[in-house]
Amino acid sequence: MDAQSLLDGDGLRSRLTNPSKVYSTSVIVLSLASLTENIAFMLSASYFPYYAESLGAKIEYVGIFSAAFLITSALLSQRFGGLSDRIGRKKLIQAGLLADVFLGTLTGLLQNWTLLLVVRALNGIATAAVRTPAEASLIDQVPKHKKGEALGFFLTMSMIGWFAGPVFGGSVQLFSEKQMGLRLENSYRVPFFVDSLLAIVAMGLVAWKVKETRGGDVKPVELKENVVKLSGSVLRSLRVLYVTELANGFAVGFIALVGVLFFGDILNISPFEIGLILSISGFVGIFCNFIAGKTADVIGRKPLITLGSLSSRLASITLPFSTNLIEATGIMIFRSLGINVAMPATHALRADLVPAEVRGKFFGRFQAFFNVGMIMGTLLGPWVFYLYTNEVFRITWPIEILIRGHGLPFFISAALGLTALGLLLIFVEEPPKRAEKRKREG
Questions:
Q1: DSSP 8-state secondary structure symbol assigned to residue 302
Q2: CA angle 243, 302, 11 (to 5 degrees)
Q3: Residue 390: is it exposed, middle or buried by C-beta count within 10 angstroms (0-12/13-18/19+)?
Q4: What angle do CA 78, 82, 88 make, to 5 degrees?
Q5: Were both Cys, which of 110, 199, 346, 420 would link to 247 (CB 3.0–4.6 Å)?
Q6: 294: nearest Cα among 363, 360, 221, 344
Q7: Regarding the domain delimited by 3-441, which CATH topology (the fold level of the hierarchy) does it fall under?
Q8: 362, 234 in Cβ contact below 8 A?
Q9: Where is average pLDDT lowest: 304-308, 370-374, 375-379?
């Protein structure tokens, strides 16, 4: 089997799926499973610090719960992805969802914050077992000229779960407190039991409708990274993508908490209004995923990545200059649109480059680099914000302008993101579309 066959995965895919079908039941169920995972992750976002505090944690250390989740997920994403290449994607997805059933229930029963920290770390393991194999399985099952469209649909469903989670979890918590009459600290527990029920439903759907694309009757080709005969340009492109994932993860993490601090401390926006900004911008942005994915299949990956990345970084630079709720919401919507334009094209570019037989391993590696960057950014961003928030910087060229220090994290984040974009455009070679390739070879 030559390198190009490995990259395309033609032989395996032709045995598994109708070559012209994108939205098979299997693909739809995988997308729903990802939606469920993101709902589970964000279910307690609106009140988790207070739940941890009710179990005895100090409020200033609540960030370690997020770090615990991201660390275990980063450490095991590549390992689980590689394991799915050998034993099967479906097996790991089901195992991760089963773990979510038990961990969700356990989270709602805990009486000690140290045990909660352990469970959050285990949640990262469960998520790693679902996320990477699910995306790899999706790519295994769709036509290669429709990867962008399929990923656009998958990521749209995923992001719906991400932004619906806090609203859904907060509504369940409020109902438990007001209608069921539970004490406030006990009402925090109920959404975690609902999370377990959702995981049971997702696990049943995966078992019933998702095709296995590795392991079992589908015999994998035993490959090591150094055995796959990749060309120099492909190998270089993959290595550059590791760096860009690390940089993008850092850029995202660096302002993830800073954005909330800026809205609250600088603009004096209430928590409810902050949630409104995040929800509105998120839901507006995710509907670009599907269109952007289809467009990337037609015109190529890099144009969409460039357009989306430039837009989101420009919004990051502009955000600290906003002075009220309306301006901040508009800029956040523009930023979300940019992120969601670039996202499916970026994932499709990875899928174009990665050999089919080791797809899970490489997808896991990309996720691990992103998570490591996000961990570092999340820890450093708030520190830089509070260190420089009262400083004023004077720029005299090309025009004189005064910049308050609270904008520094946003500028650093944008600079890193633009650097990552530059590296990708210069050093990552996008595989040619098949029609163009045939024309050149003909």
A1: H
A2: 85
A3: exposed
A4: 130
A5: 420
A6: 344
A7: Growth Hormone; Chain: A; (1.20.1250)
A8: no
A9: 375-379
Quote the CA–CA distance of 5 and 10 in Å, as a whole number.
6
The Cα-based distances of 3 to 228, 230, 427, 442 in angstroms read 7, 6, 20, 20
3-state secondary structure of 54: helix
Q: Tell me, what amino acid is at 13?
A: R
155 and 289 Cβ atoms separated by less than 8 Å: yes
DSSP code, position 264:
I
Query: What is the tens place of the pLDDT at every residue in 274-326?
Result: 767 877 888 887 778 778 888 998 999 999 999 999 999 999 999 999 999 89
Tokens 């279910």 sit at which residue?
Answer: 43
pTM over 0.90: no
Distance, first Cα to last Cα, the chain:
23
CA gap 242, 310 in Å, rounded: 20
Q: Is the Cβ–Cβ distance between 93 and 137 less than 8 Å?
A: yes
Domain boundaries, the chain: 3-441
- Range among 22-26, 50-54, 235-239, 271-275 with highest mean pLDDT value: 235-239
Cα separation of 66 and 368, whole Å? 15
Average pLDDT of the residues of the chain? 82
C-alpha to C-alpha distances, 175 to 44, 46, 279, 384, nearest whole angstrom: 14, 14, 20, 38
- Look up residue 7 and give its amino acid: L
343: helix, strand or coil: helix
Q: What is the number of other CB atoms lying within 10 angstroms of the CB of residue 167?
A: 17
* pLDDT digit string, tens, across residues 93-151: 999 999 999 999 999 999 999 999 999 999 989 988 988 888 888 888 888 788 888 88
